[in-house]
Amino acid sequence: MSAEETTGSDGRKRVTFHFDRHEPGYRERFEDITHEMHAKCPIAWTETHGGHWVAAGNREVFELAARSAEYLSNDHDVKNQRRGYKGISIPSPPRARDSRGGFLEMDPPEQRHYRQALNPYLSPAAINRWIPWLDELVRACIDEKIESGSIDFVEDLANIVPAVFTLAMLGIPIKDWTIYCEPAHAVIYTPLTSPDIMRVGGLHMEMQAEIARQLAEVRANPRPGLINALVNADVLGEKQPDDEIRGVLGLLIGGGFDTTTALTAHAIEWLSENPEERARLSRERAELLDSATEEFLRYYTPAVGDGRTISADCAVAGVEFKEGERLWLSWAMANRDPAVFADPDQIDMGREGNRHASFGLGIHRCIGSNVARTVFKRMLLAVLDRMPDYVCDPEGAVHYETISVINGMRFLPATFTPGKRLGPGLAETLEILQKACDEQRLAEPVTVRKAAAALTPEGGAK
Amino acid sequence: MKVSVDQTRCQGHTLCAMKAPDIFELDDVDGHSTPVSPDVPAGEEKNVLSAVRSCPEQAITVEDAT
Predict the structure, then answer these.
(1) What does the buried/exposed string (b/e) look like for A142-175 if buried means 16 or more CB atoms within 10 Å of the residue's CB?
(2) What is the ipTM metric for this complex?
(3) What's the average model confidence in pLDDT over A365-379?
(4) How far is A337 from chain B (nearest CA, A)?
(5) What is the least distance, in Å, from the CA of A335 to any CA of chain B?
């Protein structure tokens, strides 16, 4: 690793630094690389993956993402109709080269029209309506394991709840969550060089085919949910074709599944390693739950960064950029900048002034941020209440081999003092929750339905 | 103390409402924030300053921050 000041053929000075998130060992060296970039090159040029800029400093990431929208493009011009820009992945994964990743790979005004169509399903007020429903789902997941005294927090809880909830909001039958769950996670954690990549690609194609079937069904027989919103959305004055909507659905599933799982698993693991902090969080939850959630978001940064394309020559944070150059905005590194965060590599559950970038900055702020926070909090509170003495098994914990896209976990086994079941198991609960969705039209936007989901204390739909 | 939220900068991160729930109101439809009143009631100054420091978009401004 070395940072070197160079002058390009056009006379531009820049600091060049070898940066490759996809390299073996990057996960282990993340903190060292981050420290070095903050000290020497908060914005650097790297020759990897065709050459691109990397923004690591908090101020630099902020100036670019939040204050320079007119110079940055998210466009993924898959049909080469505009300027051929490559969207948000660096490098483009093979499965995504020919498909646009929804509105995260669009610029305004198109991007804004999509978000306006989906916001009333995903705002804080919209998500709060689901809390009784979510609590039932979490209860059932934990009931499946509570008598045994052992659980895998990823497989048995943190994979299931975000998946089932995302499908419910989309308007897809929730019993089908297993069709989506493995591919949604595996396309992220399987390195492009893995021998398993073909099998994972196959699962992902099956999931895409199922998404296409669901889209056709909603077009034929409208039912409430995000799919219906997309079918009816006016984008630039027009209804959108299936391929664009499928891209958005892929974005919502990709964003809704793996990220919240990653946050939850890491927080649960850390709280197992720090049982006094866990007891304090449980005891002082009224004061600490919000700030602890933001701190886990900052420290673990589930979605580690986003690519952009420079859309016009510009100078930002003292660096000259040229139109067409690629840029990696590292939310993960911005979140560890000592210029903004005291002791950035420590978790402080009561941290003040925690203006982290974990949901991105600027116009592309994660549209599911309220989903992520709420789902995380409901899962964590249930774990603290029902298995307060859990101990994770470090031998069985499996972190993603690559953290190039998502800083996630595959397995997190734990043991705890067994407890009593409180209601029906997962399969029966999914039927009850589906009935609640259908009868109460829970997946309507908050502009149509304001009331919270109604479920009886015994677990039935009212 | 007076407080305002720059609507061109607010992106609906909602941290202000966590820090000062009585001061900032989140829109039902998109979660974007507006102050309930430009005048900060006595006793809320600390929470409002905490919201200012927590805003990822740095969209909140206070005057007379004494």
Answers:
(1) bbbbbeeeebbbbebbbbbbbbbbbbbbbbbebe
(2) 0.97
(3) 98
(4) 14
(5) 11
